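User: I'm writing a short methods note and want a consistent example. For Asparagine--tRNA ligase, I'll paste the sequence; you return only the structure tokens, no commentary, since I'll be parsing the reply automatically.
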Amino acid sequence: MKTTIHQVANYLEQEVTIGVWLSNKRSSGKIAFLQLRDGTGFIQGVVAKSAVTEQTFELARSLPQESSMYVTGKVVEDTRSPFGYELQVTELSLIHEATDYPITPKEHGTEFLMDHRHLWLRSKKQHAIMKIRNQVIQASYQFFQKEDFVKVDPPILTGSAAEDTTELFHTKYFDQEAYLSQSGQLYMEAAAMAFGRVFSFGPTFRAEKSKTRRHLIEFWMIEPEMAFFTHEESLTLQEEYITFIVTHVLDNCSLELDILKRDKQVLEQIRSPFPRITYDEAIRWLQEQGFEIEWGEDFGAPHETAIAEIYDKPVFITHYPKEIKPFYMKPDPQREELVQCADLIAPEGYGEIIGGSARIDDLSLLEERYKEHQLSGDSYKWYLDLRKYGSVPHAGFGLGLERTVAWLSGVEHVRETIPFPRLLNRLYP
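Assistant:
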């Protein structure tokens, strides 16, 4: 029976055939231990000299790392294995013999591994991170479908900016100026006026010359937008969404979290509601702790980390000054200099994973913001139309996938949470 490593539990004490690569091996006299992978998981294949032909045993002992083959054997339980099963091999059929595989079991430097990212993805740790990423994506789709959202795909090439144009990649669109999208939000607002509750999932681009462990040039965002939603209702939805994701990762990626040595008890504490602190309160607290920061300044990584360390859950920082936030955010009715917004800061120094706000739904106020931010009426005319024809209160947010995966996985740098990272100094491979 041909199957995958992930499915071997269904064939206990039966003989199966799996297409695999050899990730590592060791031999001890009359037994060879093969560490095998097929993309769905890892399993040990035990080749006993007494159970196979001489040719098969010699092949098992001599095969180089990352050679590909079909392996046939009986599935048995193995309580010593984190996976719980192993394969008692009876036959090997070589497909391709790899030679001089560059990533050996020894330690390698980060730059070397990044230069060989196309191969580094095969390693057990990187495989575990990508499986967690996949689970976050799957859980996101499940959550939003459950909440009656419709998935809508905004364009990647745009004629206008959602935020600061200095962080955009410019390109020529025939005889016009165009940009790579830094957010699908404005288009998702239009979609929300058609479908009520919508979400997008796609790549975004920031031409920000940052080298921190939290930043990528190209990253993926999940951006929900909700008509007839208040800011408070949006915060509640964000709490439910994060809790849903964490639960799904714990339920479906236990082995991967163990491979990464992630403390699962930390994640098990992540349940709504989340603590909240206002921008004013955060500034006062930071100043009391000796940070040199004034009201009206945005928070940097050290500030966010210090605030997050107070809590064992993600924390919302709410009601920022309008001067440091994008033009579309709705003012706080009690204090016009503030906007109804929130950043969700992950624990353990992983920084902002969600940014969201209520959106301005009043046409005259949005026109004022256009003038203040010197926005082109021609480029954003369609966005004004949303306030002319059936405007409603609405809110939305964006979750950065890579930062979220880094936090859940416990890995230090977001470059390991995307298959092929684009960094300030890296466009290869």
